[in-house]
Amino acid sequence: MGRDRGVSLPRWVFVPAVIGATFVVLPLIAIITKVDWSHFGDLITSDSSRAALWLSLRTSAASTVLCVAIGVPMALVLARTSFPGQRLLRSLVLLPLVLPPVVGGLALLYTFGRRGLLGHVLEVMNIQIAFSTIAVVMAQTFVALPFLVVSLEGSLRTAGHRYEVVAATLGASPSTVFRRITLPLVMPGLLAGAVLSFARALGEFGATITFAGSLQGVTRTLPLEIYLQREEDPNAAVALSLVLVVVAVLVIGLARPERARL
Amino acid sequence: MLASRFRNAILTALAAVVVAASLAGCGSDKSKSARTTTLTVYAASSLTGTFTELGSKFEAAHAGVKVSFSFGGSSDLVTQIEQGAPADVFASADAGNMDKLTAEHLDGRTPKNFASNTLEIVTPPDNPAHISSFADLAKKGVDLVICAAEVPCGSAAQAVASNAGINLAPVSEEESVKDVLAKVTSGEADAGLVYVTDVKAAGATVKGITFPEASTAVNTYPITTVKGSKNLTLATEFVELVLSSTGQTVLADAGFAQP
After folding, report:
1. ipTM attached to this prediction
2. Residue A31 included in any domain
3. From A90, A102, B38, B139, which residue has the greatest number of CB atoms within 10 Å?
4. Distance between CA atoms of A196 and A242, rounded to whole angstroms?
């Protein structure tokens, strides 16, 4: 849209922009040149590879659903209310964005682990989280949640609340306003946030390996499988990396039209 | 107005870069005048404690020499050396990874074995699952963590299990022996299989249980100088130190056995 108005960019902008793009794209090309194409099919369809891919897709989908379920209310509270300590709370909620994932994994371990803060309560209830697929979903949700909250809160603030105020004065209940006005208005932001969360969950490594462990079909997601294969069979690691890149590109591609509408 | 402020900012930044560069220049001049030689040793991460100690001994005996270590998984180190990392000495945690480093990267000499390591059962200090033998690891309800078969400690665990005719059903197969230890020290796992030296290094945070079946899978550590080393004499001397009685004492104190 902006381009059509004929405001041209200063020419020097293109030099760092091209350097930046090369910096990102060149390693991707390097990975493609390393792929052993004659065995590519065998490498990505082995039992362990398929188990890892399937587990990654399932857990990332579950984490995204969780992120939406708890992230939408969080973004609403942060964007539409004001209370003492809100600024601090926002910073804390967004912390996993900048925290090394391994630290997130340790924090989860000290909370939900057998000897963690809630460990005793969970044991009484006969729930064991460590080494289960649930632990993977929790680790992914922990690191992906801020992506949804940030992008949705931004959309909520940009959309403003004029329409919501009008609807409320016309007698709509808060729930009706949320369902009929707020949600449709911020839908592109919500979808973009959900896609970002999914992508982040798909790439999650540090928190998962620290908190959930690594077992084929149960906790060994695609990034963990790549890290492990790199030890013994670098060709398999490269092939799986390419699969992860392709899935990530597809996911971002799906989100693209929605974002353009913003 | 705005433009001139912008220009000022750029000039300030440039000045900062120039100052920083000249400071860095000073730094390298200083090190040159002291004439230090750096010997770079690539070693398996299980050697971190012992080799750091041997490094200080080596520096004390060789004035002007600094020993710089890169510790990591043996296979990672092999990959890095193959990609041209400037290693003078390489010490691997198993023969397999040393073999991977083809003759083209060694200087024609046969690697020498300098230590060996066996597996030991590790549990939290209170041993909640009451493990006392290797067979206990296969009991129902025991949360066992071992290394994945792709890494040396995992292939050793598989070998011990199949030699003993016991079927292990771990809840997690970790990428490294350190990850296994972490799952046990945090109390998440009831038991793990790690090396004797790891148990010794972990001290009171864990309880170690030796078992006779471990002797069926012994990991041997080879060491060699690397082809293209600019400090071949020093590199050879370091290898000799590791093989000497001084080196062997340090290794034995950490729990390593003779090769």
Report:
1. 0.74
2. no
3. A90
4. 19
> Measured between CA atoms, how close is A130 to chain B, in angstroms?
7
Q: How far is the C-alpha of B120 from the C-alpha of B182, rounded, in Å?
A: 15
Q: Contact, B178 vs B167, CB < 8 A?
A: no
pLDDT tens, residue by residue, B159-201? 999 999 999 999 999 988 888 999 999 889 999 999 999 999 8
Q: Which residues of A touch B (CB under 8 A)?
A: 109, 113-115, 130-131, 209-210, 213-216, 219-220, 224, 227-234
| Domain definitions of chain B by residue range | 36-115+221-253, 119-216
Which of A34, A115, A228 to mutate: most B Cβ within 10 Å?
Answer: A228
Residues in Cβ contact with B206 at an 8 Å cutoff, skipping those fewer than 6 apart: B122, B123, B124, B125, B181, B184, B185, B199
Rounded to 5°, the CA angle B17-B18-B20 comes to 65
Chain A residue closest to B148 (CA)?
A: A228
CATH number at residue A182: 1.10.3720.10
- What global pTM score does this model have? 0.79
Superfamily for the B119-216 domain: Osmoprotection protein (prox); domain 2 (3.40.190.120)
| Inter-chain residue contact A215 with B171, CB threshold 8 Å | yes
Query: CB B175 to CB A232 under 8 A?
Result: no
Two structure tokens written together for A80: 């539409």
Is residue A114 within 8 Å of A160, Cβ to Cβ? no
